[in-house]
Amino acid sequence: MKILGLPGEAAVPLVLGNFINLYAGIGAMASLSLSAKQATILAIMLSFSHSLLLESVVVKKNGSKLSIDSNYKDYIGSIIWYYIQFNIVGGYYGFYGLFKREYNG
């Protein structure tokens, strides 16, 4: 979790959100003291992964190849992870948005 800029306790909302439902994950997020940056990262992770188990069953029953669907999700997830890592978490101070602002502190 540290690689993503999250504390270890952030694993609890991810597990609850993936195995129970999204609202359980949001409730567990509310019980943690997270910064705005950490809450954003965790919310994006939950929004991508909260229904992967159900979606994989539906894809398999439709006759599509699960590997193609999984590879697509991995590709999109890695693009979003790259954006989060270098635009939200990025650098020593981090910054929000598309344009880097000078730090005057």
Give the structure's gist in a few sentences.
This protein has 105 residues and is mostly helical.
Task: Provide structural commentary.
64% of the residues lie in helices and 0% in strands. Residues 90-97 have low confidence and may be disordered. The chain has five helices and no strands. It is flat. The protein has one domain. With 105 residues, it is mainly alpha-helical.
List the helices and strands and how they pair.
Elements: H1 11-19, H2 22-31, H3 36-49, H4 52-62, H5 66-88
Mean pLDDT level: 76
State the separation between the terminal residues, measured CA to CA. Answer: 28 Å
Number of helical elements: 5
Which regions contain 5 or more consecutive residues with pLDDT less than 50? 90-97
Helix content: 55-70%
Apparent shape: flat
Count of the domains: 1
Sketch the major β-sheet.
none
The counted number of beta strands is 0
Q: Structural class, from secondary structure content?
A: mainly alpha
Which percent range describes the beta-strand content? under 5%
